[in-house]
Amino acid sequence: MQTTTTIPVIFDMETQDPDDFITLCFLAGNPKVQLKGVTIVPGSPMQVGIVRWALNKLNHPVIPIGSYDINHQKSLENKKAAVSGWHFKVCDNVVPSPADMEGYELLLQHCDSSTMLITGGPLKNLGAVLKKFPEQFQLGTWIAQGGFAGHGVVPENVKWPSNLNDFKDKQFCPTFNFSGDIESTKLALNCVGKQIKKAYFVSKNVCHLNKYNSFFQSKLYTLLDTIVNPLMKEQLNIENEKFIRLTNSLNLIHSALGLYIQEKGEKKLHDPLAAVAAINPIVCQWEEVNISNSPKNKTQWGSEKCLGTNQFITVDFDQNLFFNEFFSCEYFGITFNQLMDKKLDSTKEQQQQQ
Description:
Structural class: alpha/beta
Oligomer: single chain
Largest sheet: 11 strands, mixed
Helix content: 40-55%
Mean pLDDT: 88
Strand content: 15-25%
Radius of gyration: 20 Å
Distance between the termini: 29 Å
Shape: globular
Number of strands: 13
């Protein structure tokens, strides 16, 4: 099944952990997405180089890249600043590269009422454009990895991650992305329903349940082994350019996450869950809320149920639906389990033809 319409997306990211890079690969290779541009925090030449490396690896068309701080002082002193060591193991021969423009300029030029902005880091670029151009900036949908759904928001029957059990009965919890620029976070929240039509937040407590391990790594390997089958490709009738980009993306995700779990055992997929929820919201269960930080500790964030805010936060998710979308099974018009069955059918057909 070929996708006839695409979702215009801009991705705002950082590179201190693998999450954003994996999300970039997912968005750039996904046939449902029109990736219009990427903004980076802080946006050092090495970070820009890594983004360009990934896009080139996936044969993605050239798109603009924006930097929050093109003259980032730490990166001038240390080219590897703001980039984790894992990135250099995954990305070989990265060439530092300047951004095309300031991050706020990219958002101003390429965001509109039909565009979706996915943020995976501190909200510095979004805050900058809202401060500089409060009247001109318009955004259809904002999806953020960040926030916390706690007491009074999450249904009692929902499972909590073990490392957050202490926060189960609390309303507020520290969240890195929102506290990376508190002023910008508050400004963006205040613009929801105005310059920003709607906002969706993938909360910390839900993200911590989304774990990628050797089991899912093996499922991705099986998928890749299936879709390279010439008979399968013919049956699926996939447009060649999109098929190549998608398989390149899945292969890169497989190798990159494989390296991580080989060293760490598992990886919590925070930003990828936000990206998947952006493409297919039914992967998550949502509540309309009002989001704010604690009056006692401004680095802790919480939410309370409130209608009419146009702010929605996750309280649970379906892991099977997540991986069905993360592996782009829906693009092939079948579920993951059906795809595995088709592999067996195609293998039998090949054996009969020999």
